[in-house]
Amino acid sequence: SILLNNQTADFSNNGQKKSLELLKTLIAFGGREVGEVRLCEALWPDSDGDVAHTTFSVTLHRLRKLIGTDALLLNDSRLTLNPEVCWVDAWEYERTIGKIKQLLNTRPIDPQHITKMVEKAIDLYHGPYLGNEDEQPWFLTYRDRLHSKFIRCLLDVCTYLERNQRYDEASHLYEAGLDIDDLCESIYVKLMACYQSLGRRAQAMKVYQRCHSVIKAHYGVEPSNELQTLFESLKQCA
Questions:
Q1: Dist. CA 39–CA 29, nearest whole Å
Q2: Which of 11, 26, 53, 152 is the most exposed place for a label (fewest CB within 10 A)?
Q3: Which runs of consecutive H residues, i.e. helices, occur in 105-136?
Q4: Domain range 89-236, its CATH number among 3.40.640.10, 1.25.40.10, 1.10.8.60, 3.40.50.150
Q5: Span(s) in the chain for CATH 1.25.40.10
Q6: Domain 3-81 of CATH type 1.10.10
Q7: Which burial class, exposed, middle or buried, applies to 180 when counting CB atoms under 10 A from its CB (0-12, 13-18, 19+)?
Q8: With contact defined as beta carbons under 8 Å apart, do 149 and 94 qualify?
Q9: How far apart (Å, rounded) are the C-alpha atoms in residues 227 and 207?
Q10: DSSP 8-state code for residue 70
Q11: Which residues does 157 contact at the CB level (< 8 Å), separation at least 6?
């Protein structure tokens, strides 16, 4: 959603919906110095140059009326969402991921601090970018990029925590990760191993059962061989 002065903006009529689509596409393309031609090709692919330019200008004018003239900067036919007056959760999320990567490369690492940073990233991410929208190619590209950063960051930090035998913090983050993406088998594997290290065999087996149910329902297949092997080893320890 879009907030203006702490109020949800109304994009209900047709003209406003196209303005909102322009804003979403601008963010998906990076939000900074995005060429007018690129935006027109994405939003009005069947319009020729002059018609597309006119439509772009009208849509941009409407969007500026909705969110403020200063919010959108157009220079040399390149559009930027002004970061000085606009806050975008996806941008803050990526900044947070960047800070976490820096922390992982710094010694010594404060486990509590880096855990809180990952929790912040999870709160900011809260699922796929425009997950309920039509799957436009430019949305999918940005969505996949944000998701890949989320999974990589989560696994890297939790691996560090496990190496330092901080299994409780790691399991907490893995569980939070599954609340975001319950189809990621890598998280299930790591969480099961984490509970195994904590001596919580029953919880580890419940994780597998959850994974089996979700994967079977979504894909119609069994979980990976790695997960099944880990599950069998847990049963043998009973």
A1: 9
A2: 152
A3: 111-125
A4: 1.25.40.10
A5: 89-236
A6: yes
A7: middle
A8: yes
A9: 10
A10: G
A11: 100, 104, 114, 115, 118, 173
Helix and strand tally (H, E) in the chain?
10, 5
Q: What is the pLDDT along the chain (238 residues), one digit of tens a residue?
A: 676 666 676 666 766 788 889 999 999 999 999 999 999 999 999 898 889 999 999 999 999 988 889 999 999 999 999 999 999 999 999 999 999 999 999 888 899 999 999 999 999 998 877 766 666 787 888 889 999 999 999 999 999 999 999 999 999 999 999 999 999 999 999 999 999 999 999 999 999 999 999 999 999 999 999 999 988 888 877 5
What the block records as the tokens of 211 is 């994974």
Beta strands in the chain, from DSSP E residues, in sequence order = 3-4, 7-8, 34-35, 72-75, 78-81
**Delimiting residues of CATH 1.10.10 domain(s) in the chain:** 3-81
